[in-house]
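Sample 3 of the quickstart, ligand zinc ion:
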Amino acid sequence: MNIKKLPEHPRLMLTKQRINSLKTYLQNDQEFQKEFEKFHNQCEKIMKEPISIRELDGDKRKRMLRTSRDVLRKIMFLGTYDNVKSTPEYQERVIAEMLSAADFVDWHEQHFLDTAEMTAALALGYDWYYDVLTEAQKNKISSAIIEKGLQKSNAKSNDWWIKGDNNWNQVCHCGMVLGALAVFEDDPTLANQMIDRAEKYIHTGLESYAPDGIYKEGATYWGYGTSFTVLMTACLDSALGQDWNIIDYEGFKESFDFVFHTSMLPSKRAFSFADSGGSSQSLPQLMWLGSKTADKRYCQMSEYSQKYLGSYPRMYPISIIYYEPCKMSELNIPLTWHGKGEVELSMARTSWDNSAIFIGIKAGRTEGISHGHMDIGSFVFDMQGEQWATDLGSEKEIYDSTMGGVWATHQESTRWNFFRVNSLSHNTLSIGGALQRVAGVNPIIEVTDDPNNMSTTIDMAPTYIGQAESIIRKIAIIDKQYIVIEDKYKGIATNQNLTWNMATQAKIELKDNNKKATLSIGEKKIYAEIVSPVEASFSIASAKPKTSVENQNKGYLMLQAEIQAPVKDGALKIVFKEK
Ligand SMILES: [Zn+2]
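Result:
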């Protein structure tokens, strides 16, 4: 781009114009006033925390990420609040956090996310407080951004993410671009290089939303990658007046719908496929998209997520900075969502109330998907505000592992030694206790959106190559009242049992010759029944992995249905009812 000059500070999101609009909302808009009061409470909590110091986490693979995230959170919260409603002690605190971080011996560039988040944090603080920092403070912070942040990204050992196709690409380019925009005048050549590089290679991360918006690494990493892309886009907009048309990338806007459906479950848990966390996440990024596209639906979704969950992630201030009044009324969002791509998903729910029935299922491919699990056909469902079928989520031990190849996804990868990521812990089928095959593509072949018959059908034959001729799984919510899960199977290898699995936090009681099961969570109960075939019966298995270093899945059991070999061609049909 060869930028010669940038507008005056503050130029990163909180421009004078933006601050003035927020001040007006604070005077005139009751919704904003209420939210701003809650925002204030969060800031007061931050003021009770100590100033961040450089701390490394992780037993084997060290990271400084928690420290970087804390500094980013504190600067975003306190800096945003203070810029709208002057609070001198918040300003003082932001400056103190920046000076402390600038003094760190380094920003741990060996794990570059740590460096990127810290660079973003100080870039925002430096820009927002440029007019009040002393010359000595400016020099110190700017030098740290350049020497501990930007320059380190040019070292060969730290730069694999530049052309990466996952969240690292989004987070690290964002950090470097924010740093470059903040300290532009101190080293225009380096700053231009950072900005040009991001413009050239950001597409490799953004192409992962195509075609329909499913983020292959799961909802948690969507939140991570996308919030930094939002941050970068917002800062490009405010500093350069252009943003490389990032929102026009195929699937990018649609991904906000994808994540809303996977994150706003009636149980306040998530559809936690891939390396995801189990809880719902509030989605402040939606407010920015609403503001950017003038589509109030996204502002409404952002408000819904905030009111529904009341949580305050470090990117929450984005929903304050880009606040738009939306007048909450009934949520105008469809009850079903499905998408194609390398990962395919389908979700359906009976309403947006927390008593709704929800079911979601995963299809597509396993091999080659970063942070992916061996989970073709795996489903999650909620009833009565509880989650009854759960994807156990990520395995922390993988992140700490020094064993080679745990991030590879081919059939023989050591990744599949871990229970939480292999198919035996997922809510799907296994034949003779074998793992699923990772190479094939398993498409969603039919979806019906009829409110009385919301169904999804998946062809899972590629996953069971060599184990079965054909397996077709269909899940459905019928008459808005009950769930049916049906597996049609043909040509199961002789001498192999067919096992249906479901991880649940419920207590399980088996009845009627193990054809029925009552599941209970506290006082709430649901009822499972095997409708066919006669040979199938329920059993209960442990959700414990083979090793003690893995997550022990405390509080979980496996509800299983088994058909003993030889398995004749047929259909295993299981129904879950509330009464
Ligand atoms: Zn999983």
